[in-house]
Amino acid sequence: MEAGQQLWERDTQLTAAAATLDAAREGRGGALFLLGEAGLGKTSVLDRVCAQAEVEVVVARANCDPMQSALPFGLLWQIVHGLGGQVAGGSDDDPTPARSAFFYRTLRQLEDAASDPVLIAVDDLQWSDPDSLVFVGLLCRRLARMPMAVVASMRPWPPAAADLAWSVVERGGAAIEPLAPLSEQAAADAMAQRLGRPVSGELAQRGWRLTGGNPLLLDLAARQLDEGIWTESDTRPVSEVERSLVLRRFAGLTSDGTRWVRAAAVLGVEFQPELVGEV
């Protein structure tokens, strides 16, 4: 996220994060979970929270990844290392500690590290390894006695992280802030900012309909509008342009590559590349 970038309709989440941090500064730890589908700006909100906390709070930032979700304690290593420590029980030869009882040693280690207010910021918690997710649950249930805030972003699926968050909320000391798609007006403002010029009501409405108010796709739609990939007078059905936006963003393909993939999809799992070219 660029410095100073506008976050549209995310004041509620930022206010909740600020309150969680203020409580941690006063010695009353807590957790906040940012819940939303891909592209709704969870990472941007987390970036802003970290940027605003850095002056007065020790920040440990961690990012979960689906490629690392099978690595035991992968998220936990990031958190502890972010606070300048080592995971209790590991060694250079065998860095993966035994699961039994080691959680509590690490909890005590984090308590010792929290002599100053601490923010643990985790992005994409839904991709956490199962062991670390269990630890996050244990930590969140003990935050009340520490000057520590946990702010984590996550999608509803895979459901393990969301289920954990709701269970922590039910026990108190945590909150969930959902992120919704942008309203039509906010989408128009976001497109105007991205394009550097005002947009007509018709164009704003079309962009909003194409993207469903998803900030990530709105940015892409504005970029493609600049490139002439779609226009205000575009007569193609919304669904066709929408598919093009999604494919180009999430598959990372050129226009020719997108056409090739569509042709291949018609032919099934196994096919001859030459035949796809003909199609």
What percent of residues are in strands?
A: 5-15%
Average residue-wise pLDDT: 84
Distance between the termini: 40 Å
Q: How are the strands of the largest sheet arranged?
A: 2-3-4-1-5
Order of helices and strands: HEHEHHEHEHEHHHHHH
**Helix-strand makeup class:** alpha/beta
The Cα radius of gyration reads 22 Å
Strand count: 5
Report helical residue fraction.
Answer: 40-55%
Which stretches are poorly predicted, pLDDT < 50 over at least 5 residues? Answer: none
Jot down its keywords.
279 residues; alpha/beta; 5-stranded parallel sheet; 12 helices; 5 strands; 50% helix; globular
Describe this structure in words.
The protein has helices at 11-25, 42-53, 74-82, 102-113, 130-140, 159-171, 184-195, 201-211, 215-226, 238-250, 255-267, 273-278; strands at 30-35, 58-63, 118-123, 148-154, 174-178. With 279 residues, it is α/β, with parallel strands linked by helices. The chain contains twelve helices and five strands. The two termini are 40 Å apart. Strands 2-3-4-1-5 form a five-stranded parallel sheet, with helices on both faces.
